[in-house]
User: What shape does this take?
Amino acid sequence: MQKFIDSYDFTGKKAIVRVDFNVPLDENFKITDDTRIRRAVPTLKKVLAGGGSLIIMSHLGRPKKVDPKFSLSHIVDHVSECLGVPVQFAPDCQKADAQAAALKPGEVLLLENLRYYAEEEGKPRGLAEDATDEEKKAAKAAVKASQKEFVKKLASYADCYINDAFGTAHRAHGSTALIAEYFPEDKMFGYLMEGEIKAIDSVLKNAGHPFTAIIGGAKVSSKLAVLENMLEKVDNLIIGGGMGYTFIKAKGGSIGRSLCEDELIPQALEILAKAKEKGVNIYLSVQAVVADDFCAEANTKLVPAGEIPSDWEGMDAGPESLDLWGKVILSSKTILWNGPVGVFEIPTFAKGTLKIAELLAQATEAGAYTLVGGGDSVAAVTQMGYADKVSYVSTGGGAMLEALEGKVLPGIAAIQE
Ligand code: AMP
Assistant: This one.
């Protein structure tokens, strides 16, 4: 079974490639950040250089019907520039038969937004708000039934299928998973997916020890499953950011007006107990930068993280926390970072997160494997110019989070099966 593109002979083959070209556009439909396009270019160029032709498919935004605002026609010229060849456009992804059939080696066709069709996601649209359960069930069955035809049509355009859209790998959509069954011997991961899979394996399957995970961000609730899975893998678990305060409170600390999910205190205690049982060292914040308001102009001071006065709020990790965490990070062989350790969008409270990025860069230089996985920590590390100083920066927020939870991603499973 074919899985990777390096060993595939594309000569004379038409490759249908699922990419994530869901790029941000401004009000004039100009691309404001083309990272996602650039990350897919090596895969696309590989097919062309190998003598194949390309049928590129993606979604853009969340249209609920045909909506020119979300048309991939806005990005045709830019894709063409990135690939260095003209790009044809198919204005309806379900009516591209003739254009696909006419493609010659080296030619490229970009299909219109897959999500103009409900069948891509396989979820019914336009249901009345007061629809009964029966009606909802019938609508779901109808879209699932027509999804088969939708996917079959896409598959009919090509000889082989490549998935290079890690950002949607956690979705069992038509183009990300279901289509793979039409290419049992000719389905494979693109370079971006391959990189992401190797990065995930480097921390979840082949980690060097000591292995440290730094989990931050706003809410325990969104990271509970990650924390639980990490307990099975790591030697050290640093819990920072807003979510850390639920743990500090669970241990009897005073956290003032800091973020807290009281209803999750029992789970936090369970995680702490489980860590003890498994010999995993947990490092919470020991010193916090607190503020008397959630804004850049607020008054700030440093206090012990478990002794925050009642009208103050923990906004960032203090230097003592960073010293403690730094020692752990710099003595680790594998480091995974997901989630900022402070309100990094406000520069006054970005110092802790910046320091973590710096420590990761230092650890990488000293030979550790470092993975930055997940939306906001990726934004932080990129914004701070450290993206090329760590081992791998993931492109998928939700997908990476689900992978770290230990889930099998449908987009990956569909190729591996
Ligand atoms: P997440 O999406 O769960 O990774 O959370 C990222 C968000 O967590 C960012 O918007 C941060 O501003 C926020 N955050 C991090 N630390 C804190 C904190 N101490 N208080 C409030 N929000 C925080």
